[in-house]
Design brief:
The complex is a heterodimer. Chain A is mainly alpha-helical. Chain A is built from two helices and no strands. In chain B, strand 6 and strand 7 form a beta hairpin. Classes of the chains: A mainly alpha, B mainly beta.
């Protein structure tokens, strides 16, 4: 029967294997994140301007206005964070 | 506005296997009502995507503000090309990177629709696909 010590030794061994693999996976994930961020900015900047204009024009009210404003704030937050805030 | 619904098993996948910042999220279309107890893509009866444009989602960098985590997605326009798409009523989001494609959430359009050739539908995710406090 396998002992507690043997189980812990095996776990330590697997954690070491995992530690070796993680940097390579993280490097790929970082590249994907950068591309996703750039895509988001390109895709959602026009949506941001449209929402701004619609809200300013009073197109929405009540709950719908709250939802649209929340979406606009979320988009702005992401775009501003990217440091690539597009200009008109 | 379509109604948001969460799959219960997602919270476990999210904690144990998912990286929201870099995983590929995809939408599936179905005309059969999903259940909150469904957990993976094969639990869903999908429609044919032969004439449907890409269903891949663009996510922004996921982040937290004051302890609340949000995952924001770009809007997605689905277009029928070369024929119709549907009928479908439910739009399901799932994680295509994790094994078995765990289900995240679904939206109920309220009635079944079919996109005729060249027609499109905008999938608008609101402020965030989901949040976690």
């Amino acid at each position: 029967m396998i002992t507690i010590k043997e189980l812990k030794d095996k776990r330590d061994e697997l954690w070491k294997d995992l530690d070796k693999l993680i940097p390579a996976v993280d490097a790929i994930r970082d590249q994907i994140k950068a591309i996703q961020q750039e895509l988001f900015v390109k895709e959602m900047t026009p949506v941001m301007y449209t929402l701004e204009a619609e809200i300013s024009a009073g197109k929405y009210s009540g709950v719908e206005l709250e939802e649209k404003q929340a979406k606009l704030d979320a988009i702005k937050s992401v775009i501003n964070k990217s440091g690539k805030n597009a200009s008109r | 506005m379509a109604t948001y619904n969460k799959f219960q098993a997602w919270v476990e996948y999210e904690s144990e296997a998912v990286n929201c910042g870099s995983d590929q999220f995809v939408v599936a279309l179905t005309n059969s009502a999903p259940s909150a107890t469904n957990s993976i893509l094969t639990d869903i009866t999908q429609i044919s995507y032969t004439n449907c444009s890409s269903r891949n989602l663009t996510t922004s960098s996921s982040s937290q503000t004051s302890g609340t985590y949000s995952l924001v997605f770009a809007d997605l326009t689905l277009t029928a090309s070369g024929g119709s798409v549907g009928p479908f009523r439910y739009v399901v989001a799932y994680d295509d990177t994790v094994a078995n494609d765990p289900l995240v959430c679904w939206y109920d359009y309220g009635s079944s629709i079919t996109l005729a050739d060249t027609e499109n539908i905008l999938v608008n995710f609101g402020a965030a696909l989901y949040t976690k406090a």
